[in-house]
Amino acid sequence: QVQLVESGGGLVQAGGSLRLSCAASADIRRINGMGWHRQAPGKQRELVAVITSGGSTNYGDSVKGRFTISRDDAKNTVFLQMNSLKPEDTAVYYCNVNGVLAGTLVRRDYWGQGTQVTVSS
After folding, report:
1. Whose CA is closest to 18, among 48, 61, 50?
2. What per-residue string of b and e applies to 87-119 under the rule 16 or more CB within 10 Å gives b?
3. What is the pLDDT of residue 50?
4. Three-state helix/strand/coil letters over the chain
5. What is the average per-residue pLDDT within 68-92?
6. What is the pLDDT of residue 1?
């Protein structure tokens, strides 16, 4: 079954750190970009960070210098290290990967179910 399993969310005080992980099932192959987006209550989903298969990264302006995205291709996993967290980082964080389902030629984006990150002031 195709799935992305996220972990690492939770409650943290401002200034603290969290590390999110997202493992894609093995039947998602030839993964190109992997990334994280977030959605706060009443706001649109926004880009947090993306990483290409070659390791190039791009970050949303609000998280540059505080968050770091990385990936482990052997495990089909993408990580998001979040430091110096602020209350405005509070949101549901969603991972996504762009890949091909085993046995098909269809490339598409797959999304995780989301993990809540809450930063208290």
Report:
1. 48
2. eebbbbbbbbbbbbbeeeeeeeebebebbebeb
3. 98
4. CCCEEEECCEEEECCCCEEEEEEECCCEECCCCEEEEEECCCCCCEEEEEECCCCCEEECCCCCCCEEEEEEHHHCEEEEEECCCCHHHCEEEEEEEEEEECCCCCEEEEECCCEEEEEEC
5. 97
6. 73
Amino acid code (one letter) for 98: N
Q: Which residues, listed in sequence order, are joined to residue 98 by a DSSP beta bridge?
A: 109
- Other C-beta atoms closer than 10 Å to the C-beta of 76 total 20
Output the six-digit token pair for 46: 């926004």
Per-residue pLDDT tens for 1-24? 778 999 999 999 999 999 999 999
| Sign of the four-CA dihedral 83, 88, 90, 95 | negative
With a CB cutoff of 8 Å and minimum separation 6, the contacts of 10 are 18, 116, 117, 118
% the chain with pLDDT above 70: 100
- Residue pLDDT, tens place only, 22-50: 999 989 999 999 999 999 999 999 999 99
